[in-house]
Design a protein that fits this description.
The chain is α/β, with parallel strands linked by helices. The model has no long low-confidence stretch (mean pLDDT 94). The strands form two sheets. Strands 5-2-1-6 form a four-stranded parallel β-sheet, with helices on one face. It has a two-stranded antiparallel ribbon with strand order 3-4. Helix 1 crosses helix 4 and helix 3 packs across helix 4. The chain has a single domain, classed as Ribosomal Protein L13p, Chain: A (Alpha-Beta Complex). The radius of gyration is 16 Å and the shape is globular. 30% of the residues lie in helices and 19% in strands. It has five helices and six strands; from the N terminus they run E-H-E-H-E-E-H-H-H-E-E.
Length: 135
């Protein structure tokens, strides 16, 4: 498949709910919206997300949601709240949500590379002429 077969989409995350935004982005990255979709090939498009620091979550997730990771050593389960990640690294929140919605196979790492996330409106992919994707 040629690199010319891919489109670039621009998604504005301002005032968007995290889970709903992540599911739409995951479908674009996987390529389910295309007629030539195959589950064993990477046929999805590139997605540029702007205004990542203006995303919202519903309910009490801002205070209560916890992200876990394990270091590999016994008893070293690390946890960090959504609020801490939102202040420190809002890009991780979106990439983690989208990554969880991608298929769990060997193509996942190639698919997630097509996701570009920026904190504000400025991005360096203007020459790719991204199409605005309305959610």
């Amino acid at each position: 498949m040629n690199n010319n077969d891919y489109c670039w989409y621009l998604v504005d995350a301002e005032n968007q709910v995290l889970g709903r935004l992540a599911s739409k982005i995951a479908n674009l990255l996987i390529g389910k919206h295309k007629i030539n979709y195959l589950p064993n090939l990477v046929t999805g498009d590139y997605v540029i997300v702007i205004n990542a620091n203006k995303i919202i979550v519903t309910g009490n997730k801002y205070k209560d949601k916890i992200y876990y990771r394990h270091t590999g050593y016994v008893g070293n389960l690390k946890k960090k709240s959504f609020k801490d990640f939102f202040v420190k690294n809002p890009k991780y929140i979106i990439s983690h949500a989208v990554s969880g919605m991608l298929p769990r196979n060997s193509l996942k790492k190639n698919i997630i590379k097509k996701l570009k996330i920026y904190l504000d409106k400025n991005h360096k992919h203007i020459s790719q002429k991204p199409k605005l994707f309305n959610l």
